[in-house]
Design goal:
Blueprint (H helix, E strand, L loop, with lengths): L6 E12 L1 H11 L7 E8 L2 E8 L2 H4 L2 H6 L3 E9 L14 E5 L2 E8 L5 H10 L10 H12 L5 H9 L7 E5 L4 E5 L8 E4 L5 E4 L2 H6 L3 E5 L5 E5 L2 E5 L10 E2 L1 H6 L5 E2 L2 E2 H15 L6 E4 L5 H11 L7 E3 L12 H11 E3 L1 H4 L3 E6 L6 H12 L4 E6 L27 H8 L3 E4 L5 H4 L10 H5 L6 E2 L1 H4 L18 E2 L5 E2 L1
Parallel strand pairs: 14-23, 17-20, 20-21, 21-22
Antiparallel strand pairs: 1-4, 1-10, 2-3, 2-4, 5-6, 6-7, 7-8, 8-12, 9-10, 9-11, 12-13, 15-16, 18-19, 24-25
Helix pairs in contact: 5-6, 9-10
Length: about 500
């Protein structure tokens, strides 16, 4: 639980003028789980851009008065944010808007550039002036620079992609086109769909397509650029196959909504499989299986199905409280845990409980949840985690920060169980991650045979340290303590 998310992107283009603000609102509302710090919408009304962005949840920022004040249009882009690079403030809200010599652009980004600090230094030394501290502005600056010397915005984006490294799923809007792009590794999801009236929609997850009545068409391939414009739909694939696919495996374990399907794999099905594996690898004698809401519930059901131990509701979530990571401060996060969950005494009193959660990062939240169940009368608590232990930071859009904060880096499984107050603890083995997405848990032919490493279509670097890209020299990862950058600036 105590994990930090990244962002969600949404874009829509219509053959006729429509209430783009309302459509984008519902799309962002469906993606709210991907970011709860800020949100924004930019409307394109025949080349005239109108926008509204602010800190807060979608329903808080876009009140009926705000929505009614935004014009109709034929295109829009939207964004929900939890910042993993850059501070928590209004100036880092997205989409980012740019006016340049050849027109306008609005850009929404999900992910993290692994070479962001290097690119920013290069740009600043060449005279660039930045107004935000997010790496999305770096992308916007490079695309704009390329646009000034290329014949089209999609050519500019393609040129920029040779410079960008790391994770980026983008939705970009110009005066006449809506453009989507997924980095060559495919770290973060991006898909598109179509409505019966000819409207096309792009989003981080398929659940957002359903929310506005669009039919899912397909996921973008890693490296693909998809252009919606006057000439119809154009797929550009010059970057496809340039890198091996490395979708973040944690999308299936935690980030995505259970009703989403990412790259052909059901998120709900992946979590059920995780629970089944846990039941086989780490069985427990117990009376009830309880999942931690929300992302632990599917895995708990899978554990119950495999083990035969009854599934029960042992924890109730206050639906009006956001995910614990909505507040960057550790003390505030703990305060929210106290009011976010409550134990169902009738379900757990005098019972041996198997408690399923998606992850343990620092252990503080897990300790609190175990304590809640103890106070409700649970006789034993056997904690099972539907991911492997976190041993390494992430540089691709998940705010898993320095190793000094990761409990698994400093304590054995038995020690961690004692720290969080559980009678036993079991993690999903790293070797079983492939089973979540239908891959075999053994090395494949080719590169895997020669290197001895697993060759997979997912990234699990936060668990095994096998990073697809070079590790950045300047990580700037830790949001929970202030530290200074090279120029003496406080970094968020």
């Amino acid at each position: 639980m105590d994990l930090h998310e990244e962002c969600g992107v949404f874009g829509v283009i219509s053959p006729q003028t429509a209430m783009m603000a309302d459509i984008t609102y519902y799309g962002l509302y469906a993606l709210q789980h991907r970011g709860q710090e800020s949100c924004g919408i930019v409307i394109n009304d025949d080349g005239v851009f109108s926008s509204y962005k602010d800190m807060g949840l979608v329903s808080e920022v876009f009140t009926p008065d705000i929505l009614s004040g935004l014009p109709q249009g034929n295109m829009a882009v939207g964004h929900v944010r939890y910042g993993t690079t850059g501070g928590t403030n209004r100036r880092n809200c997205q989409p980012i808007e740019v006016n340049h010599q050849k027109g306008k652009m609005a850009l929404a980004h999900n992910g993290n550039l692994s070479n962001a600090a290097q690119l920013r230094d290069q740009l600043e030394l060449s005279g660039a002036i930045f107004h935000t501290t997010s790496d999305t502005e770096i992308i916007a600056y490079i695309v704009t620079r390329e646009r000034l010397k290329t014949p089209s915005i999609e050519d500019a984006l393609s040129s920029a992609m040779y410079t960008l490294d790391g994770a980026y799923s983008l939705v970009l809007m110009s005066s006449q086109k809506l453009i989507c792009a997924r980095d060559p590794y495919g770290f973060r999801p991006l898909c598109y769909g179509k409505k019966p009236d000819g409207m096309y929609v792009a989003a981080s997850e398929s659940c957002a397509l359903k929310a506005i009545g669009a039919e899912f068409v397909r996921d973008l391939e890693p490296g693909e650029i998809l252009v919606f414009g006057p000439e119809g739909i154009i797929s550009r694939r010059e970057h496809c196959g340039r890198k091996g696919k490395k979708l973040c495996i944690f999308e299936y374990i935690y980030f995505a909504r259970p009703d989403s399907v990412i790259d052909g794999v059901s998120v709900h099905g992946a979590r059920l499989q995780a629970g089944r594996i846990l039941a086989r690898k780490h069985p427990a004698e117990a009376d009830i299986v309880v999942g931690v809401p929300d992302s632990g519930l599917d895995a708990a059901l899978g554990f119950s199905m495999e083990s035969g131990i009854p599934y029960g509701i042992g924890l109730i979530k206050n639906k009006y409280i956001g995910r614990t990571f909505i507040s960057p401060g550790q003390s505030t996060r703990l305060d929210q845990v106290r009011i976010k969950l409550s134990a169902v005494e009738e379900s757990v009193k005098d019972k041996r409980v198997v408690l399923i959660d998606d992850s343990i990062v620092r252990g503080t939240t897990s300790r609190r949840i175990v304590k809640l169940l103890r106070e409700a009368g649970a006789k034993q608590i056997h904690m099972r985690i539907s991911s492997p232990p976190f041993l390494h930071p992430c540089y691709y859009g998940t705010d898993i920060d320095s190793e000094k904060h990761l409990i698994a880096c400093h304590h054995s499984v038995m020690e961690t169980a004692k720290i969080i107050g559980a009678d036993s603890l079991g993690y999903l083995p790293v070797s079983e991650l492939g089973a979540l997405v239908g891959e075999k848990e053994k090395s494949r032919q080719g590169a895997a045979a020669s290197t001895g490493k697993m060759c997979s279509g997912y990234c699990s670097a936060c668990f095994d340290g096998d990073y697809p890209t070079a590790i950045p020299d300047d990580t700037r990862k830790d949001r929970f303590e202030q530290k200074l950058g090279k120029r003496g600036k406080v970094l968020g």
